[in-house]
Specification:
It contains 50 helices and 17 strands. The chain is mostly helical. Strands 8-7-6-9-10-14-15-11-12-13 form a ten-stranded mixed β-sheet, sandwiched between helices. The two termini are 91 Å apart. The relative contact order is 0.06. The N terminus and C terminus are likely disordered.
């Protein structure tokens, strides 16, 4: 059943609907916008069957619908609009006022208005001049071309006008409803500008008649006595002044009331008709009795009539020869012997008849043109003229001269406005009794009439008037009469006054019609910035539009030349007529169902001919004006297309698109596309949230960048549910997709399917997306987020199924990882690389992707690098040559590198992972599983082992995210990938499933920032966990597989994956984008990953160790004062908790932030605890002398200073400091000393009564020392490179601590007067070795060197406590309460010195190639041949800075001084803040006392023996 099918497709418009932008096709009620719901219900009450009651609001009964169509009425926006608006009072009308049916017929409604608009100023002021210049033959051609153009346009317009009901609005409505809002708006504006400039032309014609022919004395700028440019400028200034005055008066008249203009229309029409009749009467009279209009010629040159009284040089008066006025004009005196102009002397004066008559035969002389240059004399053909071409021309102001340079195309541009005005009938369609009958007949009859008049006038003017008079534009040779007026009968004044009133009327009508046209365009809302001009007075008059019209019209007035303004409006009218013809032609050719015009005498060929004539005339008139006009129309078209309101008017352009699309789709079905034409046609699969908003908008950004606006893009999503229940949600999702596509400028289609589950919906999109030959061949889907979490498990499963389905469908699959980190369309990369890792041969598609990306402005400046992998048996040199040749044939510029993979140096971790896989296989055999079950279980461990363990960044790149947080690329959640502070790198995993076998998945590409691959050094971190699992398996199943019994194929495959991951990580770490092509998915559809491979199991043990040091070790150590135990431990607890949280935010901002978010992980917590350790060490300098609030303020200020210092040192100075001797110990020490320097308390310089220890407090403090001692190796090795570096760090730290402990006991007994041990030495000095080895802890120093450093550090620390601390307190006002300068400052400086020495002594003979892995900045720079040699030995070695050992040592020295300077400055400033009286600092008496801040037991101080001062030895942390 067909619903809502009506025959009123073109029924939009009318005074009520104009400008609302809603086509009437949307409602079967033609006048529904004016009818109330009550009226509808009354109208159809009782006329419908009960079956259709529910649909009556949208589908009325047929009889009622026909009644509405028959009673349709449409009021125009013409003369009656104003009166009706005045009659309608403000407020709601009590009832609908009956509308009087229009009564105008063809004659009064169409024919006469067209006659009045077509005949105009050009006929009266320029027609004779055009005939004189162009000749009868040339002028006839011009008139015939122009009239033919308007006739063909009228035929097309008649077809459009009779195709349904025509709204009042003229060509704008015709074109906009036929060609769409873009063309309609562009042509509407052109038509408006043409009408506006026509008003300016009419006003200029009016002023020209007034100042030249009626009242020349009224000129403000006098022309008398001026000649040449001065006279021309004076005339133009007069035109400007009077034109502005007349324009203002006319605008005022239109503003006051348009009905007065309409009442004068009949008068103006009568003037036009009477003037034309007077011309024809004058032609008839010339045949009987030619009028006397003598013209005086000197030689063959026409003389100005005001320059002589008698057409003779001398006259005889009383037998005496007397000179005339003409003589005196050319001679220097009135005497006969005067010196005269040479030309005047040599030529005779002749008087001819200006209008010889129609029977005189002058037609033959005027048959051909006589084009003149500006300033040339108007000469008569055939008369002798004696002139010397070499002599200068004099007395030019005595002759009639050509005021402009004339040529054929100029005449076309000036004449064409005289045939415009054919739209007058269609503009008044609302007033017509039968518009579909009257418009074609009246318009064509009017054009026929006017064309006949024009053509006859061309012939009659040439047959009646002398050529010199015709070429005399302003009648200067015939006593200043209007040339056409000299022909008129009974008097020239008939033409003068008739043309004057005619031009006035035409100007008023232009100023009346143009604002209404602009108002109609504005109310349609297709051009947003013009909406203000849709408003007007309360009665609907377009006040603002009138103001703009007058302003534009003033531009034409300022031009002031009728000849210059006429071509301008010719352009705009020709543009309008061209699109009218185009609209008719398209509608005819497309054969749209609603194209059923009543006017049958049209053909598409005639419309195309008319369109071609219009286009040709545009360029004939003025090619530069034509380009400007087309440029204006194009700009308006594009503006409406991009910014205008979306309108659906059923236009022909949509029909063209449908026909072209059908044709193209049929052609695409003829055969498969050639490889030259292949391009990725992308189906982008997105997901929507509960509000139907897209969750991955950057997928569309990437799609736009990949497509560069070309090819097919389908954005699809699925909604869960049923079609009946969830259709509204699907519509909202579709709107959301369309809006996002518009925002991201993605050219394509959106598609939403509703399915019972999202998995099936995605499958349906992959299967049925596209149409015919325009189907997708590539699927883009984002890497699933948070898929390890149970609630996202189904999302992961759906992703796996998408991978498998694209493989079955032989489609390419693009999987962008970390899609939120991809650049938006507004970003620009000024440099960088797109790295392509060609792992699987795919015929070159992987090469095409970066080429397409680089067509987009985001990636345009990125260079392309292509890496391929050579296996053991491959010839890498030949591979590189072949690849370069291949790229040459592909016409792609890229750097090429072949990476060689060797089977040697298989890491222990590889054995571990392979062992687990082998054991799993044997376990499955023991479980007696079937073959299929066994394959499934083996595949799960295989897939989990094919990922890679994140390796830790080099120490100098600690600003980057730790690579240990993800077990494998396949298992790495997107939200764990964190931005790098100095580069922005994203990855795109590409799978060309169509060309590869479905083998197990290979390693994937790097993610955001640090990539997700490992190397040999990763073994240490995961070894214990995997070994534990292995032992459990052995015990349970009593199996003992040996290393040598491993499956060598699996081992080699695992090793290859690990090494490849490592190489990709090192090679492409700085790349902006990494592209990899992967094989298809494994056949096993039930893979399971091992959750024990998560990074938390590798980093969390270090985190817990450092956690124990922070909260238990430091807490107990700081509780050594007898009465300050509560404060020492609790304030440590409070400060540490706050500092860790604050450090997470601050360090996160500098090192782990991306896309406005701080990415958290275990590594973040470890780094934050290191920052907390800095605060707690500084806390030791002011222990017992500060309030908890002061400690929190101190932490609040110290953490940012530390974070900035750390960021600067690591990012810009680039040092090696694995154990934190520089950034932790030195910074903390000198920051704390700066604070205590400012908080100096003189009364405490000699000690305090409560500044002592007890037996219990010393025991508690030494327990803290033991905790710190035990876990210090974890502190030093937590952030070193996994593997050998971390192994060395643990060993060196333990050796150093052991050496310092033994030395501490020995020195304590030696330096004590009683030879006994001191608890303060045991509590502090024993830890010095851990600090001393910190800077060189991961370097290849010998165990003996580590032992020596422990001893040296212990000795320095012991002597510092004994002698340096009291000296600093007495001489430098530094009360180092816990002696942090001894344990952290002195030992830190020793550690830095040892690290610098180790760097200077580090040589390749000792370290081997791994020297450049440990000291990454000493590696050769990019392009160095040595780097290539090293990369052969260490695949994946990254280029460094090429530093020498001396340069790296200098950087270490610079870092030491920079850190000390920043810490001292920060500490002093912090101390100044803490000294403010707002932070509750304890008084001297209450220092080292818990009672000030805690509720303490009553006997907490009973053992204390009070005295004035009890000196004690310092005990420090």
């Amino acid at each position: 059943m067909l619903n809502n099918m009506t025959d009123c497709e073109e029924g939009e418009g009318g005074s009520n609907s104009q400008g609302d932008g809603n086509p009437k096709e949307s409602s079967p009620f033609i006048n529904s916008s004016a009818a109330s719901d009550a009226e509808k219900s009354q109208q159809y009450d009782g006329k419908n069957m009960a079956l259709f009651e529910e649909e009556m609001d949208t589908s009325p009964m047929v009889s009622s619908l026909l009644s509405s169509l028959a009673n349709y009425s449409n009021l125009p926006t013409g003369s009656k609009e104003h009166e009706e608006a005045e009659n309608n009072e403000e407020g709601a009308r009590p009832s609908k006022k009956p509308v009087k049916a229009p009564q105008l017929g063809t004659l009064m409604g169409v024919y006469l208005p067209c006659i009045q608009n077509i005949f105009g100023v050009i006929l009266f002021l320029r027609m004779t001049w055009m005939v004189g210049i162009g000749g009868v033959f040339g002028s006839f051609i011009i008139v015939f071309m122009c009239c033919s153009t308007t006739m063909l346009t009228a035929i097309s317009m008649s077809a459009i006008a009779t195709n349904g009901v025509v709204p009042a609005g003229g060509s704008y409505y015709m074109i906009s409803r036929s060609l769409g809002p873009e063309f309609g708006g562009a042509v509407g504006i052109c038509f408006y500008l043409g009408t506006t400039f026509a008003g300016a032309m009419y006003i200029l014609g009016c002023i020209e008649i007034l100042l030249i022919y009626i009242i020349p004395q009224a000129a403000i700028f006098k022309i008398e006595g001026l000649e040449g440019p001065e006279a021309e400028e004076a005339l133009l200034n007069n035109m400007r002044v009077y034109g502005t005055i007349v324009l203002s008066l006319m605008a005022l008249v239109v503003f006051v009331g348009v009905k007065y203009v309409n009442k004068l229309a009949l008068v103006f029409l009568a003037c036009v008709i009477l003037s034309i009749l007077a011309v024809y009467a004058g032609v008839i009279k010339t045949a009987l009795e030619p009028p006397v209009f003598p013209v005086c010629l000197l030689g063959n040159r026409t003389l100005l009539s005001k320059g002589y009284d008698v057409c003779a040089k001398v006259v005889e008066i009383d037998n005496e020869t007397v000179t005339t006025k003409l003589w005196r004009s050319f001679c220097d005196s009135e005497y006969l012997n005067a010196t005269c102009d040479e030309y005047f002397t040599n030529n005779n004066v002749t008087e001819i008849q200006g209008i010889p008559g129609v029977t005189s035969g002058i037609l033959a002389e005027n048959l051909f043109g006589n084009y003149l240059e500006k300033g040339m004399f108007v000469e008569k053909r055939g008369l002798p003229s004696d002139s010397d071409p070499d002599s200068p021309t004099t007395s030019t102001n005595r002759y009639v001269l050509a005021d402009i340079t004339s040529f054929f195309t100029l005449l076309v541009g000036i004449y064409f406005p005289s045939v415009t005005g054919i739209m007058a009938g269609s503009n008044r369609s609302g007033d017509l009794r039968d518009a579909q009958k009257s418009i074609p007949i009246g318009t064509i009859a009017a054009i026929t009439t006017t064309s006949t008049v024009y053509m006859s006038c061309v012939v009659l003017f040439g047959a009646c008037i002398e050529g010199v008079v015709l070429r005399d534009k302003f009648g200067e040779g015939v006593n200043g009469n209007l040339v056409i007026g000299t022909l008129a009968w009974p008097s020239p004044w008939v033409i003068v006054f008739g043309s004057f009133f005619s031009t006035c009327g035409a100007g008023l009508q232009s100023l009346t019609g143009a604002p209404r046209l602009l108002q109609a365009i504005s109310r349609d809302g297709i051009i947003p910035f013009l909406r203000v001009f849709g408003h007007g007075k309360a009665n609907g008059e377009p006040t603002w539009a009138l103001l703009l019209t007058a302003s534009i019209c003033e531009i034409g007035i300022i031009i002031a030349s009728l000849d210059a303004v006429a071509p301008i409006l010719s352009m705009f009218f020709l543009m309008c007529y061209m699109f009218v013809n185009l609209a008719c032609a398209l509608q005819t050719l497309l054969r749209t169902p609603n194209w059923r015009p009543r006017f049958k005498f049209y053909h598409w060929a005639l419309s195309f001919l008319g369109m071609s004539l219009c286009l040709s005339l545009m360029f004939i008139c003025s090619w530069y004006y034509a380009i400007v006009a087309m440029g204006i129309a194009t700009c308006i078209y594009k503006y409406i297309e991009f910014c205008g309101a979306e309108k659906e008017w059923g236009d022909g352009i949509r029909g063209i698109s449908l026909s072209a699309a059908r044709f193209a789709l049929m052609r695409l079905e003829e055969g498969p596309p050639h490889t030259k034409n292949w391009r990725p046609q992308i189906l982008v699969l997105v997901s929507v949230d509960a509000e139907q908003n897209v969750e991955q908008p950057r997928l569309l950004s990437l799609s736009n960048q990949l497509k560069a606006g070309k090819g097919l893009t389908i954005v699809g999503t699925s909604v869960q549910g049923t079609f009946l229940d969830n259709y509204a949600e699907a519509q909202r999702a579709d709107q959301s997709l369309r809006k996002l596509m518009e925002t991201e400028k993605v050219k394509g289609f959106s598609q939403v399917v509703i399915s019972s589950n999202l998995r099936d919906g995605t499958s349906h999109l992959i299967q049925v997306g596209g149409l015919g030959g325009l189907k997708h061949n590539t699927v883009m889907v984002s890497w699933p987020r948070n898929w390890k979490q149970p609630e996202y498990h189904q999302q992961f499963r759906n992703f796996i199924e998408v991978v498998r389905e694209t493989t079955v469908a032989s489609m390419a699959l693009l999987v962008p990882k970390n899609i939120s980190s991809y650049p938006s369309n507004g970003e620009r990369f000024t440099e960088g690389h797109i790295d392509v890792w060609w792992i699987v041969h795919d015929g070159g598609m992987l090469m095409l992707l970066p080429f397409l990306l680089r067509q987009h402005k985001v990636w345009r400046k990125c260079k392309m690098r292509i890496f391929t992998v050579a296996q053991m048996d491959d010839n890498s040199i030949q591979m590189k040559k072949d690849l370069i040749t291949f790229l040459y044939h592909l016409r792609i510029n890229a750097e090429v590198e072949v990476v060689e993979m060797h089977d040697s140096d298989i890491s222990a971790y590889t054995y571990e992972k392979t062992l687990v896989m082998e054991q799993r296989s044997q376990i499955l055999k023991q479980m007696h599983l079937t073959k299929n079950e066994r394959e499934r279980e083996i595949q799960s461990i295989t897939d989990s082992s094919r990922g890679s363990i994140r390796r830790k960044n080099p120490p100098a790149l600690r600003s980057q995210h730790s690579a240990e947080e993800g077990a494998s690329l396949v298992e790495q959640p997107e939200d764990e990938s964190v931005a790098v502070s100095n580069t922005k790198q994203v990855q795109l995993i590409y799978s060309k499933n169509a060309s590869v076998p479905t083998s197990p998945t290979s390693p994937a590409g790097p993610g955001e920032g640090v990539a997700t691959w490992t190397d040999n050094k990763s073994a240490g971190k995961g070894q214990s966990l995997l070994s534990a699992n292995t032992e459990a398996g052995k015990d349970l199943f009593n199996m003992k597989p040996e290393w040598e019994n491993l499956n060598q194929t699996d081992l080699r495959r695992m090793h290859t994956a690990m090494r490849l991951n490592e190489v990709i990580t090192k090679k492409s770490k700085e790349a902006k984008l990494v592209l990899l092509n992967m094989p298809g998915p494994p056949k096993n559809r039930h893979n399971k990953t091992n959750p024990m491979d998560n990074a938390v199991y590798k980093d969390y043990p270090f985190f817990t160790d450092v956690q124990v040091m922070i909260f238990i070790g430091f807490g107990c150590l700081l509780a050594f004062f007898r009465l300050y135990g509560f404060s020492g431990m609790v304030f440590n607890f409070l400060t540490a908790t706050f500092a860790i949280q604050w450090a997470i935010l601050v360090q996160g901002y500098f090192q782990f932030s991306h896309d406005g978010k701080i990415h958290l992980g275990v590594i973040n917590l470890i780094n934050a605890e290191f920052a907390c350790a800095v605060v707690l060490i500084s806390f030791g300098a002011v222990l017992g002398k500060t309030s908890p609030l002061q400690l929190l303020i101190m932490a609040l200020l110290e953490v940012p200073v530390f974070a900035v210092t750390e960021w600067v040192v690591l990012k810009y100075i680039k040092i090696n400091d694995a154990g934190g001797s520089i950034l932790i110990h030195l910074f903390a020490c000198y920051f704390g000393l700066g604070v205590t320097f400012v908080l100096y308390r003189p009364r405490l310089n000699e000690g305090h009564a409560k500044e002592n220890t007890s037996y219990q407090s010393d025991i508690l403090s030494v327990m803290g020392t033991l905790f710190l001692w035990v876990f210090w190796p974890s502190f030093n090795s937590a952030l070193t490179l996994k593997g050998d570096d971390q192994h060395r760090a643990i060993l060196h730290t333990f050796i150093g601590l052991s050496a310092s402990t033994l030395t501490a006991f020995a020195l304590s007994a030696m330096l004590n007067k009683n030879g006994k041990l001191t608890m303060a030495d045991v509590q502090n000095v024993t830890l010095a070795g851990g600090v001393t080895v910190g800077a060189s802890v991961d370097m290849m120093i010998s165990p003996a060197a580590a032992y020596a450093l422990g001893m040296i550090g212990c000795t320095a620390c012991m002597l510092g406590y004994k002698y340096l601390s009291p000296f600093l307190a007495r001489r430098f006002r530094i009360q180092d309460q816990c002696g942090i300068h001894n344990l952290h400052g002195l030992t830190g400086l020793i550690s830095c010195t040892a690290g610098i020495c180790a760097i200077l002594m580090a040589k390749e003979e000792v370290y081997g190639p791994s020297l450049y892995e440990i000291f990454t900045y000493r590696a050769p720079v990019e392009g160095d041949p040595k780097l290539q040699e090293l990369q052969m030995l260490i695949p994946g070695l990254q280029p460094g800075l090429g530093r020498t050992a001396q340069e790296q040592a200098l950087c270490q020295v610079a870092a030491v001084f920079s850190t000390i300077g920043a810490s001292v400055l920060g500490g002093i400033l912090t101390g100044l803040v803490l000294k403010l009286p707002y932070f509750a600092s304890p008084s001297d008496d209450f220092c080292f006392d818990d009672e000030l801040f805690f509720d303490v037991p009553p006997d907490y101080d009973s053992p204390l023996k009070l005295s004035n001062t009890i000196p004690t030895e310092d005990s420090a942390a």
